[in-house]
Design brief:
The chain is an alpha/beta fold. The protein has helices at 15-25, 44-47, 86-89, 101-116, 119-127, 153-164, 212-215, 238-243, 261-270, 313-329, and strands spanning 6-9, 29-32, 52-55, 70-73, 92-94, 145-149, 168-172, 205-207, 221-224, 249-252, 275-278, 298-300. Strand 6 (145-149), helix 6 and strand 7 (168-172) form a beta-alpha-beta unit. The two termini are 28 Å apart.
Length: 340
């Protein structure tokens, strides 16, 4: 080993993953502590000299980690890093993208099926003992058009599942990197086997953010799969929501503030769109007096699409960390590395 290794892990331990990390570390240190919350001040003796951090948040006294070289986030989102001097400190940052692609994509399919067959109405009929075989309960997703805003790991697996169900797939990248179809594979990304870029020439059409007027009015479903950054906050406001069809549905498993809150409430109440499935919110927990709770065209889930309590989550997260650790020690490109 050419470099001194001093790792601090503040994530739930997956024993096989920890064993692999210690095997890779050799004579280096691998210490585990209880996961900590945002802005937590950690004892200086606990963080001084650390070269690698595996956690969801940086400590409030990050400046005391002068030797830190690499920070592996447990989450795919990274808005918690905004304002931190990681670039100035020369710290490389990798995110947990790829770990939750499967459950989030499955949540999206579940929500589309619930809307397509009006499952909310069927359940209400069941409670009221109503026998109703109306056409709205017998529809199908086949042939619908889904738009994916943010064509990263999650968006690509959503596209894969949608392709299997016979939907037409349009995609818009948040950056101006969206070339004519297909959007090609991305290098140095963590993906579970069998996920990621769909087979074949998908998506059918691709767009850039300045093409909202060509993208939004033609969708049956719009799915947000992009991170919250200063550039994406409020990416959907009144103008964008009014561009959507009154029959279209919005799915947001990413971050609540991607959509302007007041505009979303008006869109749902006034019929600009048909409904929304929201797993990401504006407050945590969403207070009981919030208007979204009472809207009949909304499905609310408590930020569970990522399924961090699933039986696969820890194994995948530690697979990512140990794979990156091996690359780090071999001076190779890291998976899911952010560019500041």
């Amino acid at each position: 080993m050419d470099r001194e290794l001093n790792i601090l892990v503040a994530k739930e331990v997956f024993p096989p993953g920890l064993a692999r990390a210690r095997e890779l570390a050799g004579d280096g240190l691998v210490d585990c502590i209880t996961p900590f919350a945002r802005d937590t001040i950690l004892p200086k003796a606990q963080i001084a000299g650390r070269t690698v951090l595996f956690a969801d948040f940086a400590p409030g006294n990050l400046s005391e980690m002068a030797r830190l070289e690499w920070f592996q986030l447990g989450s795919a989102g990274y808005e918690q890093l905004q304002g931190l001097p990681l670039r100035e400190m020369g710290v490389r940052v990798t995110i947990g993208s790829g770990v939750n692609d499967i459950p989030i994509a499955e949540w999206c399919v579940q929500m589309m099926l619930m809307f397509e067959r009006d499952m909310l109405g069927l359940l209400e009929n069941q409670r009221e003992c109503v026998w109703d075989r109306s056409a709205r309960f017998q529809s199908e997703l086949w042939g619908r058009r889904v738009g994916i805003l943010g064509y990263g790991n999650i968006g690509r697996h959503v596209a894969r599942l949608c392709h299997c169900l016979g939907l037409e797939i349009w995609a818009m990248n948040r950056a101006r990197e969206c070339a004519p179809r297909p959007i090609g594979p991305r290098a140095h990304r963590f993906t579970v086997a069998g996920t990621g870029d769909p087979e074949g020439a998908l998506p059918e059409r691709t767009f850039t953010p300045d093409q909202m007027a060509d993208f939004l009015p033609h969708l049956d479903y719009l799915i947000l799969t992009l991170p919250l950054t200063p550039a994406t906050r409020g990416i959907l406001g009144e103008r964008e929501l009014r561009l959507m069809r009154p029959s279209a549905f919005l799915l947001n498993p990413s971050r609540g503030p991607l959509v302007e809150e007041f505009a979303l409430l008006r869109a749902l109440q006034e019929g600009w769109i048909a409904g929304a499935a929201l797993d990401a919110h504006y407050q945590y927990p969403l207070p009981p007096e919030h208007l979204l709770w009472g809207l009949p065209n909304v499905i609310l889930t408590p930020h569970v699409s990522g399924s961090s309590a699933s039986r696969y989550y820890l194994a995948r997260l530690w697979e990512l960390f140990t794979c990156n650790l091996e690359r780090y020690l071999g001076s190779q490109s890291l998976l899911n590395e952010l560019s500041f």
